[in-house]
């Protein structure tokens, strides 16, 4: 029997069958990847393994011992540690307080002298080769990448024998991704089981020993990583052969400048940013995480008030808030769709039409027929998978939530699309749909500003790429100079080869 075994696992939520007779097994010393589209059952399997929910049927065994109780504490006692995709740190607490929250040596929070807690936190961070994070800093003031690192170390501090990593790299900077991949190898070398969930195929290929694919709530195949290919795995995920992952890149850029910034600056964020986005162009924004990309996007959408000039269609615009941005034909896909782009407790219909209720209303009354038609059309075009437009957004998969975000901004009829890492945390099939959508928007004459943490996406989707370093644009790459290697060089502040 495998050291970790989930056998014939089934779980339903009402009439929705999340898992149906699913199997998963892994052994000590192994990095075992778990792949599948959003909604394939991966998250439910992780919740069962972590004992957040109990299976309706099936058996869970860890190192020969059955686990039956539905309790996260039971999972911890069984040696299972889970790093979830959504951060769980307490923002107002320090890094040290988060690292030892709810467990020895502190017991209850703040029962130890601060100095001792800080020393223990420094030792814990150092043991996992983490640098640049102050244990005394408030967690809420860290970057998303740094918070993710703290989340990982917090779980590892309990010395779990089974380490479950659910999309851990989606919020990490490139250097932190390399750190985590090396750490996973170290953990496996220590005889632990590492379960790695990722939508980034290159990471899976780099680090995994075996991979199990889920589709429609069940496991459809396990392969040795060295004996399979990306095409085979993607075909298993989709249940069909995949077409071109990236769309054919044909330039539709026109001479007209649709968006321009001159000397754009925000204290502590960006400095002297000059850019020109043309009609029909996909302009990429690259660079390591935290180099001012978020500040740039928030400035263009009116959330921040920068110094400098913003011109839309050649005319100077004072964009003071998101409403002003929308009225100028600018729409934003934000960094965090769950907290910045959607109201997850509301229906799909309500989310999509939230920014256009005024245009759907007559004398204060919403024209429900018109509203439903708008939502139906957008859901059809974007292939949103849901029982109905009245489904609560929080019940959708990550990929379908992202489609609702896109539908919401599309409903405002923008000409300038600000897309901030739009494929983060979505499945392979949805990524492909988003790539094709981006190119379709450009073909129709829209301008797309496209930021991605993945260099492959920048190279294959964008016409040009502006690389940011230390809050400034350090390099413009196009044509034969637009390569992964040049993006990485420019991201590090190094000179790019001609």
Question: What do these coordinates show?
Answer:
This protein has 17 helices and 22 strands. It has 498 residues and is an alpha/beta fold. The strands form five sheets. Strands 6-7-8-3-9-10 form a six-stranded mixed β-sheet, sandwiched between helices. The chain starts with a strand and ends in a 7-residue tail after the last helix.
**Oligomerization category of the chains in this entry:** single chain
With helices defined by DSSP (H or I, 4 residues minimum), what is the helix count?
17
Low-confidence stretches: 105-111
The rounded Rg comes to 23 Å
Mean pLDDT: 88
First-to-last CA distance? 56 Å
The proportion of strand residues reads 15-25%
Largest sheet: 6 strands, mixed
> How many beta-strand segments?
22
Structural class: alpha/beta
Q: What global shape is seen? A: globular
Name the helicity range. 25-40%
List keywords for this structure.
498 residues; 6-stranded mixed beta sheet; 17 helices; globular
Task: Map the helices and strands.
Elements: E1 4-13, E2 16-26, E3 31-35, H1 42-49, E4 57-62, E5 65-66, H2 72-77, E6 80-83, H3 95-99, H4 114-127, H5 144-156, E7 162-166, H6 174-189, E8 193-197, H7 201-207, E9 210-215, E10 218-224, H8 230-238, E11 257-266, E12 270-278, E13 282-286, H9 293-300, E14 307-312, E15 315-316, H10 322-327, E16 330-333, H11 337-341, H12 348-353, E17 361-362, E18 365-366, H13 368-382, H14 398-410, E19 416-420, H15 428-443, E20 447-451, H16 455-461, E21 464-469, E22 472-478, H17 484-491
Parallel strand pairs: 3-8, 3-9, 6-7, 7-8, 13-20, 13-21, 16-19, 19-20
Antiparallel strand pairs: 1-2, 1-4, 4-5, 9-10, 11-12, 11-14, 14-15, 17-18, 21-22
């Amino acid at each position: 029997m495998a050291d970790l075994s989930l056998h014939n696992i089934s779980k339903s939520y009402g009439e929705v069958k999340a898992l149906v007779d699913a199997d998963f097994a892994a052994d000590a010393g192994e990095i075992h990847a778990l792949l599948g589209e959003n909604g394939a059952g991966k998250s439910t399997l992780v919740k069962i393994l972590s004992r957040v929910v109990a299976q309706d049927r099936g058996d869970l065994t860890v190192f020969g011992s059955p686990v039956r109780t539905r309790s996260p504490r039971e999972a911890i006692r069984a040696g299972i540690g889970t790093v979830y995709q959504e951060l769980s740190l307490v923002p107002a607490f320090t890094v040290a307080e988060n690292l030892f929250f709810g467990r020895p040596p502190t017991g209850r929070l703040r029962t130890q002298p601060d100095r001792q807690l800080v020393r223990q936190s420094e030792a814990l961070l150092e043991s996992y080769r983490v640098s640049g994070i102050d244990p005394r800093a408030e967690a809420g003031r860290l970057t998303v990448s740094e918070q993710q690192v703290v989340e990982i170390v917090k779980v590892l501090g309990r010395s779990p024998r089974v380490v479950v990593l659910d999309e851990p790299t989606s919020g990490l900077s490139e250097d932190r991704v390399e750190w985590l991949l090396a750490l996973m190898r170290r953990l496996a070398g220590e005889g632990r089981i590492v379960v790695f969930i990722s939508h980034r195929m290159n990471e899976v290929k780099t680090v995994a020993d075996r991979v199990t694919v889920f589709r429609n709530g069940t496991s459809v195949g396990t392969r040795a990583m060295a004996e399979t290919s990306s095409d085979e795995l993607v075909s298993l995920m989709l249940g069909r052969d995949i077409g071109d992952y990236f769309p054919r890149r044909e330039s539709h850029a026109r001479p007209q400048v649709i968006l321009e910034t001159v000397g754009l600056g925000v204290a502590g964020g960006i400095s002297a940013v000059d850019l020109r986005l043309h009609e029909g162009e996909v302009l990429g924004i690259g660079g390591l995480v935290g180099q001012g990309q978020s500040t740039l996007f928030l400035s263009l959408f009116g959330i921040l008030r920068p110094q400098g000039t913003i011109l839309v269609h050649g005319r100077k615009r004072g964009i003071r808030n998101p409403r002003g941005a929308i009225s100028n034909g600018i729409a934003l896909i934000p960094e965090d769709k769950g907290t910045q782009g959607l109201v997850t407790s509301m229906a799909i219909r309500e989310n999509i039409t939230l920014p256009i209720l005024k245009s759907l209303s007559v004398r204060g009354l919403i024209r429900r027929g018109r509203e439903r038609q708008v939502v139906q059309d957008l859901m059809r075009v974007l292939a949103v998978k849901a029982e109905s437009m009245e489904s609560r957004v929080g019940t959708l998969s990550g990929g379908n939530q992202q489609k609702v975000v896109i539908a919401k901004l599309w409903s405002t009829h923008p000409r300038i699309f600000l897309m901030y890492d739009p494929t983060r945390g979505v499945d392979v099939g949805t990524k492909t749909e988003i790539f094709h959508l981006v190119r379709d928007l450009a073909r129709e004459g829209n301008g797309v500003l496209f930021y991605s943490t993945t260099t492959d996406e920048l190279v294959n989707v964008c016409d040009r790429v502006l690389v940011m370093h230390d809050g400034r644009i350090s390099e413009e790459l196009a044509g034969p100079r637009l390569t992964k290697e040049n993006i990485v060089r420019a991201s590090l502040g190094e000179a790019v080869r001609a």
